[in-house]
Amino acid sequence: MSVRQAIKNHQQEQRLFFVRVIIILVMLVLLFGLLVSRLVYLQVVSYSHFTTLSQNNRVRIEAVPPPRGLIYDRNGVVLAENRPSYQLEVTLEQVPDLEATLEEVSELVSLEEADIARFRRELRRKRPFQAVPLKLNISDEEVALFAVNRHRFPGVDIQARLARHYPQGEWFAHVVGYVGRIDERELARLDRRRYSGTTHIGKVGVERFYEDVLHGQVGHQQVEVNAQGRVLRVLERKPPEPGQDVVLTLDAGLQTAAWNALDGRNGAVVVMDPRSGEVLALVSKPAYDPNLFVHGIPATVFNALREHRHQPLFNRALSGQYPPGSTLKPVVGLAGLENDVTTAARTMYARGYYMLPNDDRRYRDWRREGHGLVDLDRAIAQSSDVYFYDLGYRLGIDRMSPFLGKFGLGQRTGIDTTGERAGLLPSREWKRATQNMPWFPGETLITAIGQGYMLTTPLQLASVASTLATRGQRVQPHVLRGIIDRDSGELLHREPAENSTVELRNPAHWDQVVQPMINSVHRSNGTAYWSIGRGLQYTMAGKTGTSQVFGLAEDEEYDEETLEKHLRDHALFIAFAPAEDPSIAVAVIAEHGGSGGRVAAPIARQVMDYFLVEREL
Amino acid sequence: MRTLVRALHLDMTLLGGLLMLASLGFVALYSASGESLDTVYRQGTRLALALLVLLFMAQIPARNLQRWSPWLYAAGIGMLVLVMLTGEMGKGAQRWLDLGFIRFQPSEIMKLAVPMMVAWYLADRTLPPRLFEVIVACVLAVIPVLLIARQPDLGTALLVGSAGLLVIFLAGLRWRILMGLGGLALVGAPILWHFMREYQRQRVLTLLNPESDPLGAGYHIIQSKIAIGSGGLYGKGWLNGTQSQLEFLPERSTDFIFAVYAEEFGLLGVLLMLTLYLVVILRGLHIAVRAQEAYDRLLAGSIALTFFVYLFVNTGMVTGLLPVVGVPLPLVSYGGTSMVTLMAAFGILMSINSHRRLLAR
Questions:
Q1: Are residues A244 and A256 in the same domain?
Q2: Is A326 a catalytic residue?
Q3: Which of A174, A324, B155, B348 can bridge B326 by disulfide, Cβ–Cβ 3.0-4.6 Å?
Q4: Using the 8-state DSSP alphabet, how is residue B314 labeled?
């Protein structure tokens, strides 16, 4: 402490401070007085002036929704675009009598009950002075008619908006998906600021999966409005940031070829590039027109779709789970080779049925007379069930199930669109856990020929074909090729997904199951030779399959002719080509098609012909 | 109850006033945010945190604060320089310091550190201070003000500067020196004008005639005057303010929340709010006058009066008396950092009151 401390006069200092506080207090009172008199001036003296101003206030800030990003196929064909459309909007606060207005408006513009019901629902959750759409997508005639009568309806106005449009219609419905009006559940989880002004959101498919990329950032504008709330002019604008355009891996030409190849059948076709995992076509038939959903689908139309016998809303390619049937045999054969329970050279005599020791149940072959002496090659090419019953018996479920798992069966592939299901890979543990039952040896046999509990999606089968094509390089199936950079217009490719490998003890085993697949198409005793093998301009490796829809008693005869169509077996086919350097892998399922060789294989050939031959020309 | 309050070194008059103001704030915020309970909850969490800080500060005897003053001040200056340097690299306004685990504005610390430092410097000297001492004290206050104004954050710079100057004035600044400083300010104003950013100049110009630019810088003031004026004596009622609900008012939840409140609760509501502010300020001055130590007196007085500066700059701006300077309405505006600093300051006030030091004479 300094010496000066000693001569500090505390009482004097305190008095000095007190005087200062008094001075401050006087100033404080003056300033408070100034403030209060300012407030009195504003709120009492000029009250009526400001009330008038407030009532006539004309400048307002509005959200400007960003235009949604476009969706292209790999060659620049537009799959989803934005088109101008007109809608009728109501600002409740400016409508003198809502009921009377609705009634009068309905004389000019056709209003359905569903429109009005939705309108009333939305009225309840709107912000004050927010315009609520009454009718979406009104026709040009209605626009003209209403415009003439506009003066009669304060608070009702026509708004031009951009509406989503899918020029390819039902062809891409299941993969691209559609947008629809934001519902309450979505509203609760959305960033409200970012979606202020936005009315639609991706509901399924790519539209939903890439919602974040496609949506963009909201903008704002200051607008001058008249007394009825109508916008007279825009004063200041911070433009929205449009959503980003995306390019898909799909090939519109190939998609159309696959769609046409299915012809009148229900089913699915999945086409992949086995080297990259790019999905080139993803067809599920029947489909629906996605444009129906954009403007709010009428309940009658929606219910008709939902209850339709052929389930057009169901995405068979990703959500459809079918027993893979004999298409599984190359993979089961590989499991046998790797576990040393068979070799390429081993032969056995295949009769028309197989029996387990100490069991007199007969497991029948699809060919009543059997296949005679078969080795692995003939067992796959001719699709001998008995050979694989035997192989399954030798292998056992505990070795078969994990090996099939390496090919991704029973797991989602993780494709970047919605609706994918995992299928089912049965195992002893699975059965114990879900059914609390032991695993029976007979179940191993039917699992070995792809029946029983086993379920796969067409996408998984395409992925299996692709893994066989690349000799174990597993690629992640995906539909996004890249995003178009807004500034440069260049395509920014998506980051490549992490790929994995199916490692074999002996890599020579790959060819020991792939060669039979080639033979099944190109040799005259192969299951697909007579339907597609002749005149092929490239080497195809394929495997037919037939999956049971309807169980037959062991002594019953399956007769396609006499069976009703909806009980007939599903026809399956997986393939890749050219066998020596595969660039395309395909999985086809034709529901109730009957025979894989006769029905599913020609569909795959049409797709491959288009891709490998016709387009090259 | 009373013993508990005393044991915690709290002051019921101050605390009650602060809490009542914060409650009015919640009511106004709920309306200004478009009835967003989330926003109110977040503000409530901040208030709770700020109250903990208040409680903590109230436990620290002012004697310790006095000892730490120069260190806090030095640390604050260091951080401001750091922010300035990183800001040069990052371009544009840089106010935040990121320490990895926490992000804060060093300028907030200065709201406390500057009056503490100036009080520390003057308290040991004979009062009233001589010219040399006044100059040193002014320099101590002006350095951080310049650093903060450069960020640029004119509002905070103003508050920090006035906190320092208030200490000097309370210390018994002689009238001739005050006159001299006033003259200096008159000369300095054009120089300051020269250093102002374009948008800051614009604000001063539009203040003089807001109607000249109704869609640009004047928009804020015009809309807020309409909001307040149309509120009248009784107000339009809670959640019924058309100016704020229709989004005519910019910055409704933050700097212009007073206009929302005035529109919905009218002159009577505003007088209630001003009375609460007055209670807090007067109680603060009361504590200052009763304090026995020079340091305590100066710091307490400065804290109470800075609170008034806060209030006056904000309400002056919103009512069109002063230029638009980004100063929030204390305890009512939405926002976190300034609330914590404010409560820390009131914690110090309570500590000064309850740890009243007896003179060792």
A1: no
A2: yes
A3: B155
A4: H
